[in-house]
Amino acid sequence: MQKESFNVFCPECNMLVEAKVITDATGKFQSDALNPDDEVDAMYNAEHYTVCLCRRCNHPFLIKESLQGVPAEFETVTDTVVLYPTESKIAIEYLPNSIHSAYIQALRSYKVSLFDPCVLMCRKCLEGLCKILNVSGSNLNKRLEKLKEEKHIDDRLLKWGHQIRLIGNEAAHDIDTPISKKDAQDILEFTEAILIYVFSLTQRYEALMKRRQTTSK
Ligand SMILES: [Zn+2]
Q1: Which of 52, 118, 158, 172 pairs as cysteine with 61 (C-beta 3.0–4.6 A)?
Q2: Are strands 44-54 and 74-84 parallel, antiparallel or unpaired?
């Protein structure tokens, strides 16, 4: 499974690029076989690491592929993750499925320079967030205010939320003024911050507290 290149998003070029493989290596390998003789017929999981350079600007990438297969039968890539450069400093995790899907669409739109759809999907992330948290109100404006009232977000996040809502509205209704790249990037990053605050960090904090409680017993 020697690859010569990967298609990745280059933050320098701000576009999808072809990155040329410079070197690669296999990392962790785990076979389901109970003894070495059975390994050839047993399912295995492995990790493969590749270093690449952007063909346009030479920006480096470290890519991890998760592999699954049976020796001499098949091997498939089950997951591909860009380990460097990371897209976000704090991992955006524990997102409910519906919000995750909207967020991924926002991210993908940005990466192919579709800034209006990017902002629309960011707004949809907020709509999803209100729904998941059972926040009621006749429109997004009121639902965002309710989010703050119910202490899911604070004043600052509420302000960011309103900008996402307003710029999202512009993208939906103002046909003459396209959303700029800079505005789309800001809206995407403010959306990420709200999702990280409400879902990722909240869950991690709860897990931390649980861990502390069990270790202190
Ligand atoms: Zn590049």
Answers
A1: 52
A2: unpaired
| Whether residue 1 has pLDDT greater than 60 | no
Please give the tally of structural domains in the chain: 2
Listed in sequence order, the residues at least 6 apart from 55 whose beta carbon sits closer than 8 Å to its beta carbon are: 5, 17, 18, 19, 20
Residue 90 lies in a domain: no
Distance 147 CA to ligand 1 centre (A): 40
Give tens-digit pLDDT for 163-205. 999 999 999 998 888 999 999 999 999 999 999 999 999 999 9
DSSP 84: E
**Where is 60: in which H helix or E strand?**
strand 60-70
Handedness of CA 119, 120, 126, 128 (dihedral sign): negative
Give the domain-ending residue among 57, 84, 111: 84
Structural domain including 189 reads 97-216
Distance 104 CA to ligand 1 centre (A): 21
79: tokens are 């997951």
What's residue 168's pLDDT?
95
Do 149 and 194 belong to one domain? Answer: yes
Domain boundary among 29, 57, 84: 84
Residue 82 corresponds to which amino acid?
A: V
* CA 4 – ligand 1 centroid, Å: 17
Give me the pLDDT at residue 15, please: 80
Question: In sequence order, which residues have a C-beta less than 8 Å from that of residue 47 and are 6 or more positions away?
Answer: 26, 27, 28, 29, 64, 65, 66, 67
Ligand 1 centroid from CA 101, angstroms: 26
pTM above 0.70, yes or no: no
